[in-house]
Each structure stands twice: as structure tokens, then as C-alpha cells.
Amino acid sequence: MATKLPVNFRSFYKKLSIYRKSFRSFLNRSEKNPPKAIDKLTPVIEKEVWKEVDCLSCANCCKKMTPTFTAKDLKRISAHFNQTPEEFRKQWLKKDSNKDLVNKNQPCQFLNLKNNKCSIYSIRPEDCSGFPHLSKKKWTEYAYVHKQNIDYCPATFKMVEKMIERVGEKW
Questions:
Q1: How far apart are CA 36 and CA 46, in angstroms?
Q2: Are 111 and 58 contacting, i.e. CB atoms less than 8 angstroms apart?
């Protein structure tokens, strides 16, 4: 059984530089022509991944990415700070090229850099609560997200690595 270890960034980035191209190729192919039973295999692999990857030793998602804030997120989080949604938006958010509301700054303003914990964890954006979306939807509906996330998220990288081991690089 694998042991949950802190993320070794040197090792992660080295593996990423070696495998990024083949992993993206796998994700592209599997998105268009998914291996049989991949949607049943994904939650099994996800459980294995969380036994090995310690998110609190990483927090790359909070340091290098930004969630998309929904109107519901904006209302809930701004109320927590006794602000209007508009006041909160002006203080912390901007519209990205897709016109989505995202953080102005990185790392996330709510990340405690000393312990990698979220200061608004119980009311965090929905996008954060589901990250890295390993088995959120059908594989074909979410493989494109994994293509982005392998660059930042060791858990996503590990999931794709395990998926390739199970179904083969060219099923």
C-alpha cells in the first residue's frame, strides 16, 4: 500500500517535463475514444491517489491557479465578510478573458502560506471544493480539464499516470 507523502516539487516537475507530452496525448485520445469502463475505473483510482497525495503539502492550486467564482459563491463569501457582492468583487476579483470572475492575485488571498490551509474553507468557492475534479463527471466531459491540471496538480498527474498503467498507453 502506498504511503501519503508530502509533495516533492523537484520530483513532480521533473516527471512533468518527461511525461507531459505523452500524458496529454493520452488525455486527447481518451477524450475522443475512451477506454472501456474508464468511468468506473476513475473513482477507484481517485481513492488510491488520495492515499498517496497530501494536498496540504502542496497547495499549488491556490498558489498558481484561480477558481471561477459563481454568483452563488460571490453572495455567500461576501456575506461572510459583511460586504455586498459588488464590494467583494471590486476588492478581490477581476474578469478573465472568458469573462469569468477570478482572483486578481496569486496566490489566493485566502490561502495561509504558513500551513497551506484555506481561511474560508467552509465557504470556499464551489470550484475549489471540487478541485481537482478527478471523478467529477464522465471522463469524456472532463479530460480537457485534466490536461490543464496536470501542469499544477500532483494528484491529477498521479491519476493520469495510474490510468495509463491500467488501460495502457495505446489501448
A1: 17
A2: no
For 107-146, the DSSP string reads S-TTEETTTTEETTGGG--HHHHHTT-TTSS-HHHHHHHH
The whole-model pTM stands at 0.91
Tens of pLDDT along the chain (171 residues) come to: 667 889 999 999 999 999 999 999 999 999 999 998 999 999 999 999 999 999 999 999 999 999 999 999 999 999 999 999 999 999 999 999 999 999 999 999 999 999 999 999 999 999 999 999 998 779 999 999 999 999 999 999 999 999 999 998 666
Cα dihedral: 88, 90, 92, 95 (round 10)? 120
Residue 80 CB neighbour total at 10 angstroms? 11
| 8-state DSSP, 171 | -
The answer to whether position 126 is within a domain reads: yes
- Residue 118 in domain: yes
Residue 156 belongs to a domain? no
The number of folded domains in the chain is 1
162: in domain: no
Supply the range of the domain harboring residue 122: 66-130
Nearest to 73 by CA among 96, 103, 99: 103
